[in-house]
Amino acid sequence: MEIVIALYRPQIPPNTGNIARLCVALDSELVIVGKPSFSWDDKQLRRAGLDHWDKVRFTHMPRFKDFYLSYKERRILPVTKVGNQHLFEFSFSPQDVVLFGNETAGLPPKVLKFFPISLRLPMWGPVRSLNLANAVAVVAYEYYRQMYTRGLVRPEVHPPRTYYREKNFSERQRT
Predict the structure, then answer these.
(1) Residue 31, CA distances (Å) to 5, 8, 159 in order
(2) Which of 12, 19, 69, 168 is deepest in the core (most CB within 10 A)?
(3) What is the pTM for the complete model shown?
(4) 4-174 adopts what CATH topology?
């Protein structure tokens, strides 16, 4: 049971890097749809993804049509502030694909018209939108929360990682 996270023409490298790291944490595929507005070797992109780039399951689809045809057998759910379904009232299915727009314009109407269902995240305060990386994290964890409560997925338990060497960390703790 895995969610596929797709970003339509992302614009801000640190957001995409953070989302790539999230995809590694959730063992999810990351798909970039269309041309991003940054280079793949952008320093901010690489920095945000830390040392996880070799573990990212990543696909770039230069054209929306290619993305749509590749995933049309699965349910593709665009996430937009004008979505017709509330995220917390929506029931995810295994193998769903969530599609997010870019940071300044979201998903264009020409893309949204392909999908009968679209999701919206609740916002109670007077903001225009949420940060893209934050929105992806909220949706992805809601998907996994639903899969977990249905008994369809159980997280693996990995030993905690730290960037401090255990010896150095232990010595600091004693002082």
Answers:
(1) 6, 9, 28
(2) 19
(3) 0.85
(4) Alpha/beta knot (3.40.1280)
